[in-house]
Write a structure and sequence with these properties.
Elements: H1 35-43, H2 49-57, H3 68-77, E1 80-88, E2 90-92, E3 95-97, H4 99-106, E4 123-127, E5 133-141, E6 144-148, E7 151-154, E8 161-166, E9 173-174, H5 176-180, E10 184-193, H6 197-212
Antiparallel strand pairs: 1-10, 2-3, 4-5, 4-10, 5-8, 6-7, 8-9
Length: about 220
């Protein structure tokens, strides 16, 4: 698929139309336009994206792309609010700079006084040069200098290293090569919890219960 009007309004995966990737356990029906739902469901420790969608919408999962407003609404239903930052490939001093390099050297965590960054695992929404788009999960490792125990400091001028995992068409398939070639990348990361302390504890308890029940894999920095 291609994104609506060649923009980042919608996200899907055009490569699967060529049979490039297979199905995944969390996406058992092999839907082609649910990459955002799959990524968020994985981050929330659900075993299938259908379970996740029923829990937050009480409705069957549609096989259709989401725009940014719908993505934000979905995340808010998990009681989290994300910040979104977009990086676009551009020319700087007559040299082409990729969206990925701009992300590595300008990740939002680097501007908060040297802390180790936002909590949670980011989402990466990206648009390829052909206009198609996709959503995957990301993980990052900040360059750290020696500091007090438990309070490392970010090394200024050094890039943040990222990995990217696709859960729509495989079990955490490494798709860094695809993101690195993207024309634009939107990174969304957890900014705050929308609710009371009791609601926060309940949400975390739910995640832990799903993880212990085997509804999802992986470890996260929540």
């Amino acid at each position: 698929m291609t994104t609506t009007s060649g923009t980042l309004n919608t996200f899907g995966d055009a490569l699967n139309n060529m049979g490039f990737w297979g199905a995944s356990n969390i996406n058992p029906n092999n839907m082609q336009n649910n990459c955002v739902s799959v990524s968020v469901a994985h981050m929330e420790y659900y075993s299938t994206v259908e379970d996740f969608w029923r829990d937050i919408y009480n409705a069957p999962l549609p096989d259709q792309p989401l725009n940014l407003w719908q993505i934000e609404d979905m995340i808010r239903r998990t009681q989290y609010q994300f910040r979104w930052v977009e990086f676009k490939s551009r020319t700087i001093d007559s040299q082409h700079v990729t969206a990925y390099d701009l992300l590595r050297f300008n990740f939002p965590a680097r501007g908060d006084g040297g802390s180790t960054g936002p909590r949670g695992r980011p989402l990466a929404l990206y648009k390829r040069r052909d206009g198609s788009g996709h959503c995957v999960t990301a993980a990052y490792e900040l360059p750290e200098a020696v500091g007090a125990p438990g309070h490392p400091r970010v090394v200024e001028g050094e890039p943040t290293e990222f990995t990217f995992q696709d859960w729509q068409h495989g079990e955490g398939v490494d798709c860094a090569w695809d993101v690195m070639a993207a024309d634009s990348i939107i990174i969304g990361y957890q900014a705050e919890f929308l609710g009371s302390v009791q609601e926060y504890n309940s949400a975390i308890d739910g995640r832990i219960a799903r993880m212990q029940a085997g509804r999802g894999t992986g470890s996260y920095d929540y």
